[in-house]
Amino acid sequence: MPKNKPKILIIEDEDVMQQTLKSILKRDYDPRPVDSGFIGVEEVKKGDYSTILLDLCLPKMDGVETLKKIKEVDKNIPIIIVSASKDIKSAVECMKLSAFDYVSKPFEVDELLAVIEKAQKLFDLQRENNYLKESLKEATRYSDLIGESEKIKKLREMIKSIAPTPSTVLITGESGSGKEIVAKEIHANSTRSNQPFIAINCAAIPENLLESELFGHERGSFTGAVERRIGKFELANYGTLFLDEIGCMSGAMQSKLLRVLEERTIQRVGGNTPISIDVRIIAATNIDFEKEISEKRFRQDLFYRLNVIPVALAPLRERKEDIPLFVEYFIGKFNAVLNKKVKGISPEALAQLINYPFPGNVRELQNLIERAVVLCGGNMIKAVF
């Protein structure tokens, strides 16, 4: 039998009906009969079936339960109920459980084939959509990590390795070097990508409010707490929490964060109930940890908890070959935002940028290009300073 024929799983306990369905389908399909729901579910786990024909009157595990189990394995595979009219109540229940269609026994061959053809078209469409989604995801993967320098190439490879893991990541680098972009790329390429990515800048929030921001609070727990508030940890549950500028945390907050990392539970301010959390932590800072630890401003045990996977970002001045790519990207971005039509930058202006040390890194370059696009009177940027 040709290997390219779509495989159809027949879950039917009657031998005569199995043979009937096989003879009807064998010209255009590759029918595979099994006589129980248990075996059918195991077959689906192996994959490669495009449609399922399911009888409702099965021994031990009936058709309704079989359908539920199959949907747990593959929620998209089309399932056609082929059963006697006396099973109509169960058939209705199956339709509510997202069965594709219902064909009653005895059936007209043409009717059955028409329903199978529709199911096959749905399967092909879903497969094509999945392919397009994966292609788009691959095309946009690491899209914000602009550059072709060796340092950026190594960073992309590192993200590819660490993203699928649940391990805590500590990103270090100068201000403006793109630490949050890297954190987002790690999240986007992880198994948590469909869950929340929540970011908080620990340096931007007063110490007396940071605990409430992170852990939430109960109503009446302090002056102004007029209602319960969910904190960043709970908002990020099952996803990723990005703790930017973590080096600015007070000693008291460091102790509380350490306890959360050790116990994987939080407690809202004013609350008494521990709340379990499943959150991946990505922290970032521009401080010198060795100095901060030696001067007792940062807890060494917390550093060890955070520094499971260290990621060090190079400053822009150490990857100057990436500057032309950033310039091209930012010109396109600000053309769209500002409704401008700047086509490029002069060699002299680009040379100025390449020779500039960029203490503010990529953020400073972005601001320079935005200003240059705004002030550009023609279609070419001729000066940036």
Automatic annotation (TrEMBL):
Keywords recorded for this protein, A-Z: ATP-binding, Nucleotide-binding, Phosphoprotein, Transcription, Transcription regulation
Sigma-54 factor interaction domain span: 145-374
Gene3D superfamilies reported for this sequence: 1.10.8.60, 3.40.50.2300, P-loop containing nucleotide triphosphate hydrolases
Residue numbers bearing the 4-aspartylphosphate modification: 55
GO biological process: phosphorelay signal transduction system; regulation of DNA-templated transcription
GO molecular function: ATP binding
Record-annotated Response regulatory domain positions: 7-120
Protein name according to UniProt: Fis family transcriptional regulator
Organism encoding this protein: candidate division WOR-1 bacterium RIFOXYC2_FULL_46_14
